[in-house]
Amino acid sequence: MPAAPNNYDKVASFYDRLSLLIFGGALRRAQWSLLSVLHPGHRVLIVGGGSGWILEAMSARVPEGLHITYIEISANMTALAMKKQVGKNEVVFINDSIATQQLAPESFDIVLTAFLFDNFPPAAGAALFAQLHHALKPGGYWLFADFKLAEGRGFWQRPLLKAMYFFFGALCQVQARQLNDMDALFRQYRYKLVQQKDYYGRFVNAAICEKV
């Protein structure tokens, strides 16, 4: 049976170390910058959370009262995430593809997607965006982090991105070969940009967007 697409099982044991080797702490700093809007009582949806280090970061900021749904297609990544310390927060782990999930409309205060959309070709990315948009409450926050080609930086960003797609395409069956236009999707659904920061020479973008 062929491996499921966008499944990071084969790299789960070393993915975080590889990320730190290539990007230093940039990917983690980008995600930490998004957590200021978290408060006790929030219902949080995390899609593609990987090894789960973000759960400990969230719980360090909000030690109790979060109700987190954690969806991750990789069984190995999910197993790592389940070992994280989450304080008194509630976490429901779902080891499955987000595409198979029936999410109740407007059921989450927070949606967090970190380095998720770079896995999907445009049509699948647009469908995923619509799915998560409908699950987020009006006035809720989408916490978003991903790669972005910055104007004037393509001379080094494009080769790096191409190498990443080659590596993860071979090992993880990543479907995408180019980044989605996430700015266009957030504009299409009329999100309000609350905060935006760039990292790693503007190759990494982190944004808090409010659903209005």
| Biggest sheet strand line-up | 3-2-1-4-5-7-6
Total number of domains? 1
CATH topology: Rossmann fold
| Cα separation of the termini | 43 Å
Helix content: 25-40%
What is the name of the CATH class?
Answer: Alpha Beta
What is the number of helices? 7
General shape: globular
From N to C, what is the helix and strand string? HHEHEHEEHEHHEE
GO molecular function: methyltransferase activity
Domain Methyltransferase: 44-140
Keywords: Methyltransferase, Transferase
Organism: Chitinophaga parva
Task: Give a written overview of the molecule.
It comes from Chitinophaga parva. Residues 44-140 form the Methyltransferase domain. By secondary structure, this protein is of the alpha/beta class. It has a single domain, classed as Rossmann fold (3-Layer(aba) Sandwich), CATH 3.40.50. It is 34% helix and 26% strand. It contains seven helices and seven strands, in the order ααβαβαββαβααββ. The protein has a seven-stranded mixed β-sheet with strand order 3-2-1-4-5-7-6. The termini are far apart. The relative contact order is 0.18.
Task: Produce the secondary structure layout.
Elements: H1 15-23, H2 26-32, E1 43-47, H3 53-61, E2 64-71, H4 75-81, E3 88-94, E4 108-114, H5 122-135, E5 136-147, H6 154-172, H7 182-188, E6 191-199, E7 204-211
Parallel strand pairs: 1-2, 1-4, 2-3, 4-5
Antiparallel strand pairs: 5-7, 6-7
Domain Methyltransferase: 44-140
InterPro entries: Methyltransf_25, SAM-dependent_MTases_sf
GO biological process, one term: methylation
